[in-house]
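Support request, please re-run this one:
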Amino acid sequence: MSGPSSCFEYFASLSSFEQDDIGLYPDSSWNCDIISGVKSSLEGHRVFVYPNPVFDQLNVVVNNNELTDIFLYDIASRVINQKKFIGSVSLNTEDLSKGIYLYELSNKNGVIKQGKIVKE
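Re-run finished. Output below.
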């Protein structure tokens, strides 16, 4: 079975279940680009960005030993915060106004992940 041509998340996992002895949604895990068409280099990377919604601190964990950049943007695409890190980083979000923010994680090979967070 092949994965979808596009999806909103980098990894989409469907759990299987049965109804009337028919298996529905067989177990699958697909690696795909986000719907914006941005080419990702997520292969081999597990990325965790939490909590969402965020209050005082945004935590980012990437399971590699590569130099990674995180960019945090406001809704007008202005860079609010940027950090370089290896493995994990915490961003102070205490002074951000409530709202929606965008983030992008990248390394020397390109974009790893993009997403949205909500500041409460």
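The two ends are 40 Å apart (CA to CA). The chain is about 0% helix and 50% strand.
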